[in-house]
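Risk register update: the risk of archive-format incompatibility is retired. Evidence:
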Amino acid sequence: MDFSRRLALIFFLTLALGAAMFLALGAGEYAIDSADVFRYLWARLANHSLEGFSRVQEVIIWRLRTPRMLLALGAGLALAVSGVAYQGCFRNPLVEPYILGVSSGAACGAALAIVYPSFFPQSQINAFVFALAAVSLAYFLARRRGEAPTVTLALSGIIVGSLFSAAVGIMKYLSDDAQLREITFWMMGGLHYATWDAAVLNLVCAVPSFLVLWGMGWKLNLLALGDEESRSLGLNPPAARLVAVLAATLMAAVAVSLTGIIAWVGLMMPHAARMLFGPDARWVIPGAALMGGVYLLVCDTLARTLTGAEIPIGIVTSIVGAPYLLWLLRAKSGGVYGV
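Archived output:
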């Protein structure tokens, strides 16, 4: 695929992301016209007078929907880009950001904070700490003679994830009805608790990690060839893989701790980006980032507008993700990495 076509696709996805952002800000129980949304944001950002806008519009647009929109955008970017990094590092098209225990570790941390609030900090902080702890433990178990082989690291992540999932089961067993309900809803994923602090924190972690991985695009291309081939071309595979996994894990862990478990984004978006841009990670990473943002914004808008009560966003993403995975397994076996 030539450069101009790829650039045109990036431009089109950027326009789609802008449209999805305005749709998210305007749609809802209290619908607001896109023109009014644009005029309000322009007045707010340019520090102009907000005269002519009601107090209700200000609260809905600026305090409720804008941080939620930014959190969805940042989480979609983080999960999609981390999926590209993991699939390149592990040379497996079915790997997603949760392979090293990110989701199970975060779920365990959130469950502990919910069941024992006196002993553990806020659920979001605890989820982030336990997500990083799960990944660190998986890497420690896989490390041998200064290296962590790809297959061993993946298996370690599965083992650690199972242990933390068992701990979540224990927390569910020990919890009362209200706590069990809260744990269940957290594990379904949702953006209903979005705040400005959460949105900014997510973007502060996701954007630098995205830039690191984008800068490593050529290294991810070499890693996808295998360790022997990449080493013969002058790359140090263990070191490059460690940096990529750390950056991907950081952005995924922060996103999961703030939004709960949102499945399929990190699996679907990298494949969709490769279908559009080809296997070159230098183009797949920005393409997946834009597509992840669009996808999660649309899913979140559907989750809060389809019915009177908000649907957990994890349910909406899974409804699309499961048929996609079935199609992928049937039609794309032996794909990009020969799996």
